[in-house]
Amino acid sequence: MTVQMRSSIRFLLNHRLVELSAVSAVQTLLDFLRIDRNLRGTKEGCAEGDCGACTVLVGRLLDGRLKYESVNACIRFVGSLDGCHIVTVDSLAVPGGPLHPVQQAMVDTHASQCGFCTPGFVMSLYGLWMENPKPSVTEIEKALQGNLCRCTGYAAIIRAAEAVSVIGDLDKDPLVAERATIIQKLEALKDGKRVEIGEGSERFLLPASVDDLAEIYEAEPKARIVAGSTDVGLWVTKFMRDIAPVVHLSHLDELRRITVDETGIAFGAGVSYTESFPLISKHFPQLIELWNRIGGQQVRNMGTIGGNIANGSPIGDTPPALIALSASVVLRKGRVNRTVPLESFFIEYGKQDRQPGEFVEAVRIPFLNEKARYAVYKITKRLDEDISAVCGAFRLTIDGNGKVSDAVIAFGGMAGTPKRADNVEAALIGAEWTEATIEIAMDALGKDYTPLTDWRASADYRLLVAKNLLRRFYLEIEGDEPVRLDRKQAG
Amino acid sequence: MNVMQPIDRIRGGVHENERHESGHKHVTGTAEYIDDIPEPAGTLHAYLGLSQRAHAQILSIDFEAVKSAPGVIGVLTADDITGENDVSPAHKHDDPVFATDKVEFHGQPIFAVIAETRDEARRAAAKVKIEYRDLPHVTDVLEAAAANYPLVIDPLKLERGDIASGFAKAKNILEGEMRIGGQDHFYLEGHISFAIPGEDDEILLYSSTQHPSETQHMVGQVLGVASNAVTINVRRMGGAFGGKETQANLFAAVAALAAKKYRRAVKIRPDRDDDMTATGKRHDFHVGYKVGFDDDGRIEAVDATFSARCGFSADLSGPVTDRALFHADNCYFYPHVRLRSRPLKTNTVSNTAFRGFGGPQGMVGGERMIEDVAYALGKDPLDIRKLNFYGGEGRNLTPYHQTVEDNIIGRIIEELETSCDYAARRADVLAFNRKSSVIKRGIALTPVKFGISFTKTEYNQAGALVHVYADGSIHLNHGGTEMGQGLYTKIAQVVADEFQVDLNRIKVTATTTGKVPNTSATAASSGTDLNGMAAANAAQQIKARLVAFAAERWSVSESDVAFEPNTIRIGAERIAFSDFIKIAYGSRIQLSAAGFYKTPKIHWNRSEGRGRPFFYYAYGASCSEVSVDTLTGEYQVDRSDVLHDVGKSLNPALDIGQVEGAFVQGMGWLTTEELWWDAKGRLRTHAPSTYKIPLASDRPRIFNVKLAEWSVNREDTIRRSKAVGEPPFMLPISVLEAISMAAASVAEYRIAPRLDAPATPERVLLAIERLRRAARNG
Prior knowledge:
Structural class of chain B: alpha+beta
Structural class of chain A: alpha+beta
Oligomer: heterodimer
Strand order of the largest sheet of chain A: 1-7-8-10-9
């Protein structure tokens, strides 16, 4: 296979085309904006993608459609932005000119105090406005899950978000009105070439295609594949690790494809949580809450299901839920694919069933059997944008005689990997679906897991709550009263 | 000369909903924070090297790999300090800039790397090799007491009446204890200092500090130069909350040292994780209490000890633990009382100021006693509260012997109780809990009374500088710092009101020690009270000169000269303000003045525990309702109603913002914000990924916040307003108590729930389990 090469990346930054040939694999977008370009409206609050002070919009093309999404500039590598349009707070209003409607709404409602988080909120709300001009309060809160404000208590910011459409006309917004021109400019940047820049600890590559990715990775199995960089970004900003050579895949449209057939859904490894949400919510409504509670909006816009799995976290946002669905992983090395059940992909802490040069190409989730009962519960210290203390996923079938015919139960946060509860399943399968059985199964949980104590939860709490989640699952099916908090829309 | 027609009123005067003076800059990203200031050519960057041990002797340090790392210019250690190696604000000489032979907490600064870029400095700092010999360490406050760790500063005792006879008389006595967690400030802008060396011994610093004068003093002390060589500028901070009252000093000192040593501008900005590891937080407390009360729930005697995790040095732990005692009574009269503080040393970062300054911990302790009494008697805690409020003959004296003279808590509670429909909703909650076995609800209505003034009397002074330029524009500078609270806006409103000119005529300039000297920290909620009065005083001096001038020039009596909206009225003539100023300038009238203010009436004798430490009190109350999942301990705040007293508000919109923000911040402190140290004494919740402050989705699902519009400060404060920064932080004690009630429902409310703070889902579930067991066994 011959691919054409390019030794620069090109993207639109606000109103200008930028071409860079000297850029490091670990160059973050935030430092690039603030230090290299002197665009200092975008702030650094945490450098780990949790506070949102650095929020910018990144417009990406897929199949001719251009969508702007909020991302955390602090953990986004510049190398991943080839062919994108980056919009920062600095560009929203010309000096001396009128404020952008989002900005005007924030001023009118007294929604800034110290002002340091404010540019990030403005960008998150701008991204929301473009997608959803008249959002509900719940939708506003969802869009702001990745933005921390320590001063206002948020009430005024919510009022601002509600006021944007009263103040502004979305059709007149430059990113909407000039969309066709911007698309043309971005299309012109797509030349199907492989990009390779830098040497040693600075080197990174953008494969020309998935085949090219396979070839590159087989030749250089020690390269670091980066999809959304919501975890790898922290390896650089927090642990100062060398990660080169980096191979990006977020620009590969082929990996952003979603295939649905009669048996299930296959998500390409580059599909973000946000991109997967419409189909996830349609086919697996039990996953809506989990999906909405993964990171903040910026992280969901960047992070991918494939990356979440490949990275092998002991907690894992999606793995427990996907294991309980008997999902599988499509791995590829060179031209060879193999499919492994997700649960056996995780071998032990820090070790996955992946050969050198082999990468996650797709994740397949089979549809639920009509009779199956399925639920996922994520337990955290804070409701949103928090990593699970415990995440429990339950899939179970009750036969015509009231007995459990099938049970797949998996937990995250209870062991070194997302892991199935073999003893619990054994206690359930074949038993009557009764409270007494649940109590036996709850006892069995202690045989399946010996959780750790850490800052997220104590071992005692983890075990207790894991058992109680089993009870919740039972009560949710059999009980006659609510067993989960009714997450009310704020009024 | 224009003859002006009178207009009704100026734009942007006092008591108006004026926007934050920087609002339009915040939203466009053009509000300049220190890291946004364009750096002079050759600017260097400093990065701190932190201790990796909680308590250890330093045996050796090998800087070879640090010094040979790319971009490194040099390394600073204690040996490079030209003055004193100390930034103790308590002047205890226990707060080194750089540790020398011993480290006393994990994260203590030992050295700084100076390099061409921040990234290079940071990467180089990680390459140090330090040999330690570990010493036993203690991070927990009770373990510190058990290990006979010293106190970092003299404790305080407040005593009134005779507790022995009080307890002897009491029909009921109960004892309990409570743990109250600390809190990280999580200002969005982390610590930062930027130093530019000047001629001779001079140095200019931009520092994210709430206390420019102390930063100036400390930089001078560390450099070994007088204060007149050091200028500190601070236009705004990206949040502070007390975390930049003393904690900015070390960063400023390091930047200054490096700038003088290398004769180049030097900036220092720690990564968020290092900021959270190396700088102080709200004190965690253990409260041990004994309360005697009659069968109605009327308190007879209280004896309580407040032990605080102070960390390795004194810092502000003395006044913080004092303020805990000052607020342990909250709104309640204790006939016989003894309150004691134990400011304990621990091998943790030195804890510091944080909104409320110990007051919240004291108040939570006091409210826990009320809650316990209520559960012991099977009553609604609100009834116990009302029974014990200050008021009535002989029931107005605080444990520190100040008489409560401005008590309005009764009216606040009454109005809130009605407006939030407390009684009916409590009945609904009780009914709901009888039917619902997994989800339980709770409701609580709690009051706040918070004392306003620095308890260190000398801090209750302020200065301001006002210039009226010949074109009629006004320059305003004062000693307070802007950290988001809207201080600059409010003070400008005051000056606009004094001169009766539109607000846009006034420009507030960056706070600097070069314009207003010897200022106090912008803290203790006092920023507007102090600086507003000082600025008004400056304006009044200029006005007095202008009035005298006009009276003389126009041959009218001074009483015939008046400042009317954008106009001076002299007798029957009206002259536009700017025209009049031009005339005054031409007649050589001094158009500049330095204003000054000191708070009257206050005095405090710490050794006797007596005095009037507070000029006045601010009041408020909130009612919160929550739902709790008794299988997981998860909860949701369904509704909170607030009625809060800011006197006659200078700017209701900004004050509402302070109340809403303080409520959510206080709620975070009492619920999800947990500081967690591991067995090695390392803080493991040192970033937003692990330390969870509230999000938009955490705020109460229904959130009604109102100001008590009828309130007017009975003391002569600036336009009869009241301080607002800290008092509303304690309103969400109602959230904690509502969660407690939901938990208590599993034991039919017969057992005091005694939920510790922060009430994380884990603590809630474990409390529920404990209550269930107790109910089964008892």
